[in-house]
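TA notes. Do not distribute before section.
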Amino acid sequence: MEVREAAGWKGRNIPFAEIGCRMVPPDPGWNLHRLLTSEGAWAAPQRVMPYQNNLLHWYARNRYFDAPVDSGDERGLTQVAPGSADRGIVLMRAFIRNSSAFNDTIGDHRGFSDDPYASAKIGIAWDTGTGEIGVYIHRSCVIGNTVLFGGVSYACLPAEPVKFVPDASIYGDNNTDPFNYVSVTKTGNDLVVKVAAINAYQEVFDAVQNLTLGRINATITLTAVPAGYNVTLVSDKYPAWEFYRYKTFDTLMASTMGTYGLLGTRDQTSLGDLLEPQSTCTSTGEVFEGTLRPMPCQ
């Protein structure tokens, strides 16, 4: 019996002859957005019928683990123990929502989005099946705006590298070292992620004005429950956060369209709150529609 590894299914050997499935190419209309922008092109995934690789899961694998990094961006990879079951990829992202002209100028030129390729100041993806952790940092830009199919940005500096440390929470706003600090701890099927992300322009402000922009500091706790994951977010009130789960497999029609579970969203306040006390926000389980699920905070 021949065993082949399907494209985009890293580490997953699927005995097609045994399960009696056939391979089909992706729908030709897919990836229109990325064909019309500079976000990159890649080989088409192959998928299995009637249960097949979820398209959004495949996109998340590409962005956070497998595909080349976009120019000016940074990615870091680490590993925790694989889960007892494959619960897909959980994606956690901090981004500046285009809620005002100022935020649109300095931000990610978008609202809440289930697109794994959507811009973010820092994104963390956990492949629960393999235990891989991918951290993606977009370059820092100070001029831009929202346009059709995304945004345009100018005056950009390359992102600072990702550095994995035992406890990222010790790196506060006054620490201006040129690293995006991340720590991950897995206990059972639960995960704790701590981040201390920095704007690449901090070095410029250090040299010219000795001004601290502040880090994006957060501690994220993902607790496994039958209906996905409960999320606890302890973080600065700025920028916005969003949490999604992409199942590895789904039924034919759902997988072709791409499916996701929305764990929660947390909107932002103002830039100055990067330097102010943090809030604690929570969500339970997930829903399977929309891109807005506000997390209650205190």
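Switch to the second chain here.
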Amino acid sequence: MAVKLTKKDKEILKKVGYEEQDFKTIEELTSYVKIYFEDPKTKKQIRVSKEKARQALGDEDYFSALGRGIFHFSTVRELKNKGLLYFRRETR
């Protein structure tokens, strides 16, 4: 299911280096990206929502990671020594 980017989302994506021509792909493939939190002590991964990931990272880091996950199939972001967030495009 495609996601509709807001005007603010698009402004943030432009700020982190994406172009308008990328927006359609990002909208179409966002639902295929799954996000996992890895606890630094246990190394156990649990799935988290995009909303929680965005809240934890902030808008710019979130959209940077989301875009990278879409176009490169995976990426990881560190949460200030509190663990890791993995973004993975799992299907399509």
